[in-house]
Each structure stands twice: as C-alpha cells, then as structure tokens.
C-alpha cells in the first residue's frame, strides 16, 4: 500500500494564528449496524472545534448527544466519515484521518494523550508498569519513568502498597487514578479527558483538578467531558454544546 | 524506534494471491509492516489467514504478488525471487515462525538446550560453552528454570513448550516473527503468562510480529494494528482500537459483538 508522507490536502492546513494546537473541521460520523436491520445512526453532523494552547474546552450535552463520539473521533479511535482533524505534531500540521497507521501511532505517542473512562487492565502487570508504559514507549529509561509515575501516584494519594500489584482487583477510583497517572506521565501537548473524576472522592478530585490546571499553565490544549459541574466550571474556559 | 516516520517499512506485501482448486484463499493482500509493530490478523477458520502466514514464510508456493523484506544491512530483498538457500538462511536468522502446535516448532527428541542451540549451530556457532550459556540465558528470559535445560520438551507443559519455541527462535535475534495461534489450546491462566511475556519481548527486542489468531482478546493486548480477513480478502484494517471499538464491516461487527469482553 502506498501512502504519501504528507496528507494530500496539506495546503489547506490551519494557519498558526492564536496558538491553535487542535482543529476539528466539519466532522461527520454515522454508525451503520449491519446486524440490526442495517440501521444507520447519524451522530456527528458537521461538528467543528479549535483548541489553543493552555485552553480547556468542555464537551456538554445529554447522554447520547454525541460528545463521546466526538472525543473518540478526535483521538482517531472512531473513524469519521468526512471532515478534518488537524493536530500540530512537532511543529507540523497533520490531518489524522489521512495518516497511515504508523504515523498515527507516533502522533498518539508524542502529541495526543487520552484519558479513557475505564482502565484496560492487563493481568500480571503491576500498576507502576501500567502507568509507566507510555513513557517507556518513548524510550525513557525505566528508572526515570518509574520516578515520574511514583510522583504522580503520590499526588493522587494512591496507596504505596498497591503500586506493585496488578490493578485487576483495584476499586473504580483506584483504577481511575492509575489511568490518570498513565496519561499525565507524558507531557502531551494535547490531552483528551473522558470523565476523569467520575469515580473519585472530593480530595482526589481536587488533586486531578490541580493536575489539569498545572498542565494548562504549561500550555497543554485540552478537551474534556466532565459530568461534575464544579470540576467543569473550574477547569474549563468554554464549552461546546451538543 | 522512536521516530518511526523516519523509517522505511520492514516488510511490504503487494497483491499476494493464492488459490486452492479455484478457491481464492488469499485474494490480492497488500500491507506494510514497520519495525517494532505487531500486526494482528483475525478471521474465522478458512478465511485465509494461515495461508497468508505460510505464504509469507515460503511454506507454500504463491500464485502472484510481491513480498519485499528489508534485511539488517538495509538491502531490499524480493522474497519471491530469492534463491532457496538464501531464503532458508533468512528464515533461520532474521525471521522466526512460532507454530500453533509446539510439535511443529520444536524437535521433541532433543533436549530444551539443544532446541535452542540448534538455531545457533545453523548460523555457524561452534563453541559448546557459549551455546549452552546462550541457551540458559534464553531459558531464563522465557521463564523456564535453568535445571530444565537437559530435559526433553515432551516433559514440558503446553505453556512451557510455547515459551521454549519462543526461546528457540529469539536466540538468533530475528527482526520479524510470524505467529500462528500461539496461545491456542492453552489454559486461560497459561495464556496470560505467555501474552505478558510476548508483550515485554516485543518491546525490549523491538520485534515486528505478524500474529494470526481468532482470539480478539489476544490482539487487543498485543497488536498495534489489525487486519480482518474473510473469504480470502481483507475486509477491514486499521489500528487495533479503531477496528475493535468502531467495527464497520458486517463481518467485523459480528465478530466483535460475539465477544464477551472485546
């Protein structure tokens, strides 16, 4: 299969004004359920969003309105039917749907982080390793990666006795903190957050809000789904309504 | 390893085809594989996935298509025109094949140590002490106790036999490993240990892997990318999470929906 090294429509990539890092243009996405009568569900019909460095945008709307589909499309987890998702990767604008798989993997490793709602646990692998994995994939030494993760675990008050255990048996809140540490260990320029505080108590929610605020101050562009009004009002600068 | 953009593909497969008695087992299959990538191939029995793997490894003659491999010196090699002696050498050094049945991948009549040493002898190692040291090292990497080195594989459990197959192949530091249902027939707990070991070996050795399986859990855990095959054709391909979370083709939807925890 021949892929061009640059997206075909590189000429129409976004201009650099306003320090924009992520620009979704006119996204359309429908789901066709072949085994349920071939029913077609249009979920996104022309959604656009630009996010600048240091900005956090909330995706708001009732369940089923398409905000999760939009967020997953931004990560190229869901494949859109039409539209562009421009991501500034190492100084260059790339349109995610146009990228061959190996480049998309690279953009996810370096530039585009995603905190999923649920942690995918791997049997036998300790929490410390799970959270250190993205850093190790970037070639960071194990010891350095573990130090970064230990610091985050401490900030998130994850009890030290759990660090060497597989998260298989962890509570929802403990798994969620491992997941947050995993995503925040790498300094992604763009971070997508899918209900990162849904299973946390007030203290840990506060710790996560501080992490988000720190990252924003460092210039990270964020998009998040937050059901908790207090969290959303505090960390988000504006909202996109669905 | 880090900036894969800078790298060229390790393997390029273009329009590979193979028919049996007029039935297309592999119908114009094309893909690229980059260093360090694990490509999963899923599909039901008869979809052509095992034929594809055996065709790539040269275990059966192909009807058409090109397979280009970039060897360690950076030279592009056309595998379909490569003379047999060179092809065999490549398969014993830079390539490895993990069989579904350990009986096909191991020699059951020689010891575990000899199974590992054999590939080294094939590539010219002659010093007995070095070969034994190397064999011990690989046994420990695949979590088989040292004291089992002089035992025959017939005395090993199924999971240990699969791990010995891995050691036998990895001893020559291959760049590309082909695997045919490596966890098939193993208990779930034994599978988990093997999968975990394969995950860590892929990263530490920067292996590229083509993994044929019908187990969605295995590809979710190991594969970066996924191709779904049905009736000899690739019906859907993408990053593993794309294909499993947003399956588009009717067959992929059926496969994912039939899985308890996809």
Provide a quick synopsis of the model.
The complex is a heterodimer of chains A (242) and B (262). With 242 residues, chain A is α/β, with parallel strands linked by helices.
CATH architecture of the domain at 52-79 and 102-241 in chain A: 3-Layer(aba) Sandwich
Output the CATH class name of the domain at 52-79 and 102-241 in chain A: Alpha Beta
Approximately what portion of the residues of chain A adopt beta-strand conformation? 25-35%
Give me the count of strands of chain B. Answer: 10
Pair with the most extensive interface? A-B, 29 and 31 residues
Q: Calculate the mean pLDDT score of chain B and round it.
A: 91
Number of beta strands of chain A: 9
Biggest pleated sheet of chain A:
5 strands, parallel
Largest sheet properties of chain B: 6 strands, mixed
Task: Kindly state the percentage of residues in helix of chain A.
Answer: 25-40%
How far apart, in Å, are the first and last alpha carbons of chain A? 38 Å
| Number of H- or I-type helical stretches of chain A | 7
Provide key terms for this protein.
heterodimer, A: 242 residues, alpha/beta, five-stranded parallel beta sheet, disordered N terminus, B: 262 residues, 10 helices
